[in-house]
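TA notes. Do not distribute before section.
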Amino acid sequence: MTPAQCRAARAFLNWSLDQLAGQAGVAVDAVREFEAERRPPPPGAVAALAAAFERGGVEMIGADDGRTGIRSKRAAGAEDTGIRPDELNAANDG
């Protein structure tokens, strides 16, 4: 997880620094310093932050081309009922 992903996921969930720190069991200062890219987090902190976001419904995504992001985590067993962008038309654009 990158600091930018951490900031984005926290914003997506509308969590304060205190809330994220509490959910992850990480010191608030460690989260603040990580997000600001001022110092690396303590060992295990990134995994704890990622696990807190996963429990909150957000997962981190990364691509081989170096681009990263976040997305809403689909519930286990949930069927994808969306329409692919290439299948959109005037009849199903709603």
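Switch to the second chain here.
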Amino acid sequence: MMMNDMLKKYNNSSLKDTSKDNEEYMTNSEKIKVINFDNLSKKGYSKMLRLKGQSFPFKTNDALYLDVENNKFIFIEFKNGSFSANEKNFKEKELPQLELKIIGSMYILQEITGKSFKELREITDYILVYNKEKNPHIFSAVDMGNYIVNLGTLNNKKITNPKEGISFGLEKFKGYCFQNVNTYSKEEFEEKFVKKIEKRM
């Protein structure tokens, strides 16, 4: 991982602060430090290009976690609102916004690090965190895995480790932009990411 001066400079926000969406925090973790990628992009990146007085043209993800131990970048996007239950509306209005943030973030990270897109794809993951209470219509692949486990068997074989799924049409970015993609509810995010990282600290 290329820890250049800009990444070091902006690696000072708490995960909690970057998780604020619709005036609510989606995690209370203040121990985990991340880069507020919106700030880095609008301030550090624009300054690097010597752009003044221009509106920032990119949409970007909320946070970037530098997993130095595993030599990985992990983008995190927090969505506290409700997604459209209508698949057509979702694909026309909400999915394009997520896609623009992904492409914009990867483009900027590539410029900042000097790494090729291929190099970044092999060491970068993506996590979308959503509020399940505001999206009861979402039955994710994780939910399906848990449902199968609760049934106890599938074709008379015990299922102990259901495969994590990817919701919101983001599966196409796995292998294309990122090594791994995950979509977690707030609760899943605490269990699968926050507690795991804090335990290592």
